[in-house]
Write a structure and sequence with these properties.
Layout lengths: L2 H8 L11 H8 L3 H10 L4 H12 L11 E2 L5 E2 L5 E2 L1 H5 L1 H46 L3 H12 L11
Antiparallel strand pairs: 1-2, 2-3
Helix pairs in contact: 1-4
């Protein structure tokens, strides 16, 4: 038995009769049937195929960023923390990210509206204060206003400001 055939067996590409499952090998290695036959006959597969088989047999991922992660033979992605993810869940991550981004933008928009409302409320109280002052001014009689005007014009006794 060649080293390549042994690598195929270690990776689990064996059917119920104990023979190499060529269809699964072709799909996994993404090669033609002719290429697989040549590799098995000559025992000279490409290095990429050997690495793939080695990692598949050990249930490990290939890239260093994925250290500790692995995909089991049932097709689940396992994290170094022991969490298991189905392929369907992973394909939905993009949708969840979009949804979270949309929700974040909605929150920011509502926060902006709240700030505007706070500003409006402040302006409302300022308008009420000014209205009260205007009301106080308009309640003075004409003679009081005339006396006030005279004190403004009298240089000997300048008007005193009084906070109401």
């Amino acid at each position: 038995m060649s080293d390549f055939t042994w690598a195929l067996r270690r990776a689990g590409f064996v059917n119920q009769q104990g023979l190499i499952d060529r269809k699964k090998c072709i799909d996994f290695l993404q090669v033609s049937e002719r290429t697989l036959e040549r590799w098995m006959k000559d025992n000279k597969p490409c290095p990429r195929a050997l690495r793939l088989l080695e990692h598949y047999a050990k249930d490990t991922m290939i890239h260093e960023k994925w250290k500790g992660f692995f995909i089991c033979r049932d097709g689940y992605l396992w994290t170094p923390d022991g969490d298991k993810f189905e392929p369907e869940f992973i394909s939905k991550i993009r949708i969840m990210q979009r949804s979270a981004g949309y929700q974040q933008s909605q929150i920011m928009q509502q926060q902006g509206k709240l700030k505007n409302l706070a500003h409006v409320e402040k302006m409302k109280s300022e308008i009420a204060r000014l209205a009260s002052e205007i009301q106080n001014i308009t309640t003075h009689t004409e003679s009081e206003l005339h006396a006030f005007e005279l004190t403004l014009l009298d240089p000997q006794s300048p008007p005193s400001l009084k906070v109401v």
